[in-house]
């Protein structure tokens, strides 16, 4: 885990509490700007020694390491932030924040980095040239570069050497009306610290909690409007 000060990664408030149920989305329906998919993560329920979300992501996406932690693909990672006042450590998962104004998309010279109409940020490996401008632009260090030939790939996630990749919010599952693998695993095996849903739907649990409870967005000072919110930090 990476130990950072709370002030280094947190800079604004918003709203949330967390648990996990299903999506109000018709399987196979095209991405629509009427939706904005997002995550809310309650760090008070996230144990420092729990990595079920990370394990579920690796299994779902077919990610295999090469014993190089600094360069192996990681779509989600656990970090710790310290409260500068009380000194308390908070454990939280960090992944692509699926920003409304993603800098990775702005700097991509080929259009490989893109944002769907429903707010999910993706990389098209077919037109990614591996320049890694997006990796430099991302303030969350959420993207990885595939240095080696990829083996054991999943049909829903073709990967290619020399391209950039990151969390997709399990878009293949979302398009089928299912939850991301990390959220499902957290609900089943941990304390249900993660909630996924439509931020644009005022009737959804995630939108109701964002509207009524305090949350935090990492580096909110940048004005990127992340789709991932945190509670308890």
TrEMBL record:
InterPro entries cross-referenced by the UniProt entry: 4Fe4S_Fe-S-bd, 4Fe4S_Fe_S_CS, DsrO-like, ET_IronSulfur_Cluster-Binding, TAT_signal
Q: Which SUPFAM superfamilies match?
A: 4Fe-4S ferredoxins (SSF54862)
Q: Which GO terms describe its molecular function?
A: 4 iron, 4 sulfur cluster binding; metal ion binding
Database matches in Gene3D superfamilies: 3.30.70.20
Q: What keywords were assigned to this record?
A: 4Fe-4S, Iron, Iron-sulfur, Metal-binding, Signal
Where does the secretion signal sit in this chain?
Answer: 1-24
Occurrences of domain 4Fe-4S ferredoxin-type (ranges): 119-148
What this protein is called in its record is: 4Fe-4S ferredoxin
């Amino acid at each position: 885990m990476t130990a950072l000060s709370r002030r280094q990664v947190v800079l604004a408030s918003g709203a949330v509490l967390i648990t996990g149920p299903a999506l109000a989305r018709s399987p196979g329906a095209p991405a629509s700007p009427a939706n904005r998919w997002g995550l809310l993560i309650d760090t008070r329920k996230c144990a420092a020694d729990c990595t079920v979300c990370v394990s579920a992501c690796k299994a779902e996406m077919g990610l295999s390491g090469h014993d190089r932690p600094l360069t192996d693909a990681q779509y989600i990672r656990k970090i710790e932030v310290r409260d500068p006042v009380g000194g308390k450590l908070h454990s939280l998962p960090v992944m692509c924040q699926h920003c409304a104004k993603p800098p990775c998309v702005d700097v991509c010279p080929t259009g490989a980095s893109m944002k769907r109409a429903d707010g999910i940020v993706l990389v098209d490996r077919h037109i990614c040239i591996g320049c890694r401008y997006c990796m430099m632009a991302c303030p969350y260090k959420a993207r990885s570069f595939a240095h080696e030939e990829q083996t054991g790939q999943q049909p829903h996630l073709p990967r290619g050497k020399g391209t950039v990749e990151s969390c997709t919010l399990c878009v293949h599952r979302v398009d089928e009306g299912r939850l991301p693998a990390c959220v499902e695993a957290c609900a089943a095996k941990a304390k249900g610290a993660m909630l996924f849903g439509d931020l644009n739907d005022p009737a959804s649990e995630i939108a109701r909690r964002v509207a009524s409870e305090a949350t935090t967005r990492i580096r909110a000072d940048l004005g990127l409007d992340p789709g991932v919110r945190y509670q308890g930090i």
